[in-house]
Amino acid sequence: MSKDTIPTKVDPFRFADNGTRLQGTLPINEMTRLKSGLASDEGGVDINLLFGVDEEGIRFLRGHLKTDLIVQCQRCMETFKYGIIDDFMLGIVETEEQADELPERFDPVVVKDEELSILEVVEDELIVSLPIVPMHKSEDCKVKMPFKADSDDEAESDNPFKVIELLRTKKDKGK
Ligand SMILES: [Zn+2]
């Protein structure tokens, strides 16, 4: 698979008419808005984009993204890799009115001056895919929270020292 350089700005209408495919990697450190929510801006996003025109004459951008974002767990404060695989389908339009008329299967992207930033499209998709409060899966996290479903959870959740106690137990075991 060739790893071509992804152009920053493209004319999506021309790309759609030509059925252009873009494949490659975009660096996370250029995604300013996304970066602010991450613990590290290392790495890149593998992208696979196909521009085209569907049978109804709608210009579209079909995308597949794959990346590991490094985030901080808001429970134990350690960093971890949050894997994202995202598929999206954008309808390329020129006005808000056209955006409203798009069939439901499309997310609209309103393009002004025949110019679309691939970086921003990818960044927007990742921001939406990223959890607002990133946390390990409970089984992977250093901080063990009592499960709400437990019958005796009242006693546990009333005890603010429970978490500290659990942490201490784990640490002792490790020695
Ligand atoms: Zn954690």
Q: Which structural traits does this protein have?
A:
175 residues, alpha+beta, 5-stranded mixed β-sheet, two-stranded antiparallel sheet, 7 strands, elongated, binds zinc ion
Characterise this structure:
With 175 residues, this protein is an alpha+beta fold. It has two domains: 9-129, no CATH class; 144-175, no CATH class. Helices cover 27% and strands 31% of the residues. The chain has six helices and seven strands, in the order βαβαβββαββααα. The chain has helices spanning 12-18, 32-35, 96-101, 118-129, 153-157, 162-174; strands at 9-10, 21-27, 44-53, 59-72, 79-93, 107-110, 116-117. It is elongated.
Small molecules (ligands, ions, cofactors) in the structure: zinc ion
Overall, the morphology is elongated
Strand content: 25-35%
What's the gyration radius in Å? 22 Å
Discrete helix count = 6
| Terminal Cα span | 47 Å
Strand order of the largest sheet: 2-3-4-5-6
Q: Report the helical percentage.
A: 25-40%
Structural class of the helices, strands and pairings?
Answer: alpha+beta
**Average of pLDDT:** 87
What is the number of beta strands?
7
Q: Sketch the major β-sheet.
A: 5 strands, mixed
Q: Which residues form runs of ≥5 with pLDDT under 50?
A: 150-157
Spell out the helices and strands N to C.
EHEHEEEHEEHHH
When the domains are counted, the total is 2
